[in-house]
Design goal:
Blueprint: H1 8-26, H2 33-43, H3 46-67, H4 78-109, H5 118-131
Helix pairs in contact: 2-4, 3-4
Length: about 130
């Protein structure tokens, strides 16, 4: 399917995947707590959006059985496959919500941290030495 015919929801899922893949590479580096706090602030929202998306996808699959001539290549009952997918999506939604809660707790755990760069630390030490007379 070319981009002109790819549904917008599929394109957005592709964009989300690309963003998460890029984030996976970028988080290999060392990041201080204030930066991680910001990252977690966005990631914890997956715990809200993924359950909603999962539920809506499950509902959409059920509706698709009425709106489309749905069939399976192996002759299985499409309604059974949709029901099974719905069960998996419901479990995924619960796990996503739990993940969101855990990410929020991780964010909370570091909310009081700050940091100084090596240069800032050096300047602070010099200031302290100068203030102490020596």
């Amino acid at each position: 399917m070319d981009d002109d015919k790819t549904p917008e929801a599929v394109q957005e899922a592709d964009t989300a995947y690309d963003a998460l893949r890029a984030l996976a590479h970028l988080t290999r580096a060392t990041h201080p707590a204030p930066d991680v706090y910001g990252i977690l602030g966005n990631l914890k929202n997956l715990g809200s959006f993924l359950p909603q998306i999962s539920e809506q996808l499950a509902q959409g699959l059920v509706k698709s059985l009425e709106e489309y001539d749905v069939y399976e290549y192996e002759g299985k009952d499409p309604a059974a496959s949709v029901a099974l997918a719905g069960e998996h999506l419901a479990r995924a939604a619960k796990l996503a919500a739990q993940m969101g809660e855990e990410l929020a707790q991780a964010q909370n755990a570091i909310n009081g941290q700050g940091y100084r760069t090596a240069e800032e630390r050096r300047q602070l030490e010099e200031f302290r030495r100068a203030s102490n007379g020596g």
